[in-house]
Specification:
The protein is mainly alpha-helical. The protein has eleven helices and no strands. The radius of gyration is 25 Å and the shape is elongated.
Amino acid sequence: MNEQVRGVTAVAGSAPAVAARPEEHHAEEHHAERRQAGSHHAPHETRARSDTRARIQQVALELFAERGYDKTSLREIAERLDVTKAALYYHFKSKEDIVRSLVEDYFGQIDALIAWAKAQPRTPETRDEILGRYVRIVADGSDVFRMLHHNQAALNSLSSAKQRGDLFRERMTGLIDALTEPGASLRERLRAAMTLGGVSVGWMFFADQVEDRSKLCAAVLGIATDVARGTSEG
């Protein structure tokens, strides 16, 4: 705010002392209103597009779970959303595009976690926070994981299948690096890998068997933390 005030003051001080004509004043007000209106609409439109994209992803996940990836069409997704196919095409050109976006969103969260971890001191507290954030990412993405697992045969034939495997391996390597010290032994890196794998398997296996997922989340995190520390309940 202070920089804005100083900027306005500087401009005012350098301007010639000539009063603006009424029509110029009104014209400037009109342009200012239009600029202000535009600045209000842009974030709203961006949020609307983001919300629509998220709705498409959610409905697609539901239909892929109900009917399978192969038996679900873009037309059916559009019908359940109550939108035209043209509106759907604005966001996604194919079912594969939807799957790719779901995987990219998941990887984006892991990338953000790795970037955050790199900026933190390597302490037990940081390691615990990394695990806590990873558990939440896995929990939030469990529907995507389940869809990928249940539709392996169909999805493995897609051109992006091999790339998904490579990208996943890269992210896991990044997380293992974040959980271990530089030059860590194979045993320490293996412990980190098994910790991360245990989070995913534990959540996926038990998520549908509990009523309170927050308790499952806490249990998974507690066990993962013990494994990462090399401790157990005995």
